[in-house]
Amino acid sequence: MGAKKKYIARCAFFCFAWFMAWPSFAHEMNTAYLELREREHDVGVLVRIPEFGKSFSIVFPEGSVEQSEPITRIIEGGTVKTWRMAVPEGLENEQIGIPDLEINDLLIRVQLHGGSVQTLRLTPEDKEFTITGAPSQAAVAGTYFVLGLEHILEGIDHLLFVQALLILVKGWKKLTGAITTFTVAHSITLALASLGFVHVPAPPVEAIIALSIVFVACEIIHGRQGRPGITEKSPWLVTLSFGLLHGLGFAGALSEIGLPQHAIPMALLFFNVGVEAGQLLFVFAVLFILGILRFTKLPMPGYIRWIPPYAIGTVAMFWVIERVAGF
Q1: Whether pTM exceeds 0.85
Q2: Which listed CATH number (2.60.120, 2.60.40, 1.10.1760, 3.40.390) goes with 32-134?
Q3: What residue range is the signal peptide (predicted)?
């Protein structure tokens, strides 16, 4: 590949990162959360509305009565409202209506008194859902696959790390080994943390994940200055170390959703499969763009090659400061 095409390729990496980032930010701002936790005598209701989202009404089964006034709290990025409902016949096999859902989608988690957990997503076209108790293994697999896929495609920090690897690691053999090691590493910590064998506070993990992106961006700059670092020489070592950290980040997202007690292995497996599918989609999309750019001959100035690492490093450093300040 000629010098001009290399410049174009690096520029494409940068542009593609921000192309992926915008849908991510929009999705985060427009996703709400509903939790129904059934107890012996009532149902605890929790609704989280994002900062730029709209409130929605919930239609409970006939005969349901509010047992407490809703309490609204302002949190970072939105509001949380909690209250208690009396549902005479219980939640199992009942329909819950969401007639005026206007946001992008709604994540729902239902925990019945018997311990079974149901997780699903609604779009504005869905006006109601049925609480089935213990969903089938196939339903669990499908739901958690989609959740894993959406999480990685919304996780711009994880994707920027992968993108930096694509820029830095030279050769198909090294790149394949690096991506494989990263996958294996974060799969291990995702499983260990989700199953309760590892407990690490989320804020430090998120800050170190951002710092890992800064590190790889610096490695790109040093390599182009004629000082190749450890990532370029032994990428598997870096992806193994940071992959373990990124897996803890995935586990933090999964802990917010919860795992169905009757199908924990299935849910964990397919959440991870969804994450890997999203990661591969991102890699293939970047490679597809590069394939198209091989046929172009656009003149590009020399400074273009420095934009991607500095842009990635700057954004990641902002995240480091923001996340450390949030401790």
Answers
A1: no
A2: 2.60.40
A3: 1-26
